[in-house]
Amino acid sequence: MKTNLQKMLDGEAYDSRDPELLELYHRARALILAYNTCDSRDLDRRNELISQLLGKVGKGVWIETPFFCDYGIHIEIGENTFVNTNCMFLDDNKITIGKNGLIAPYVQIYTATHPLKASDRIYQDGDSTRYHTSTKPVNIGDNVWIGGNSVIFPGVTIGNNVTIGAGSVVTKDIPDDVLAFGNPCQVVRRL
């Protein structure tokens, strides 16, 4: 029988209040708190904390504070990628970001999703109201610049050498070597 963690990573409906998932969540919260309050000059400690928090961190990765995520362990960031302030990566599934990326302030990457219909989304578990949740991974290629206040939806793949304009809502895959922006985000031209 699958654990809720395995269901979550497999994109199946899962219980986000499962004790194993809550423990991973609390672990991440402690590391995020330590990272977000660490002296910016203490590079060794910052690197140690972010390496403990994230699943994989390439050489030269810089993540501005504050930074937020759900679990951290499902996030992989390639070398020399810069993540600016106030980014939120909801890594209920895998988030993979390639090398040489620029992630602007307030970028949000979501992997969790819920049924659209309220009666399919909400259920009672004893005295507790719960929500059906499933996930889809997000993949971002190499040399990608994502403009500030952009939102990346569950299941999206962004190719290599892409620029996403500020304020975009990326609901579908974006191919290599393009400029894309808008709500919903659309390819504007090849680069």
Structural features, described:
The chain has 4 helices and 21 strands. With 191 residues, the chain is an alpha/beta fold. The longest helix has 18 residues, at 19-36. The model has no long low-confidence stretch (mean pLDDT 97).
What are the SSEs and their pairings?
Layout: H1 4-9, H2 19-36, H3 43-53, E1 56-57, E2 62-63, E3 67-69, E4 75-77, E5 82-83, E6 87-90, E7 95-97, E8 102-103, E9 108-110, E10 112-113, H4 118-121, E11 122-125, E12 128-131, E13 134-135, E14 138-140, E15 145-146, E16 151-152, E17 157-158, E18 163-164, E19 169-170, E20 178-182, E21 185-190
Parallel strand pairs: 1-4, 2-5, 3-6, 4-7, 5-8, 6-9, 7-14, 8-15, 9-16, 14-17, 15-18, 16-19, 18-20
Antiparallel strand pairs: 10-13, 11-12, 20-21
Helix content: 10-25%
**Rg:** 17 Å
Which residues sit in consecutive blocks of at least 5 with pLDDT less than 50?
none
Number of helices, counting only DSSP H or I runs of 4 residues or more: 4
Would you tell me the overall average pLDDT? 97
Terminal-residue CA separation: 48 Å
Fraction in beta strands? 25-35%
Q: What structural class do you assign from the helix and strand content?
A: alpha/beta
Overall number of strands: 21
Order of secondary-structure elements: HHHEEEEEEEEEEHEEEEEEEEEEE
Strand count, sense and closure of the main sheet? Answer: 7 strands, mixed
The general outline is: globular
Strands in their spatial order, largest beta sheet: 2-5-8-15-18-20-21
Q: TL;DR?
A:
The protein is globular. It contains 4 helices and 21 strands.
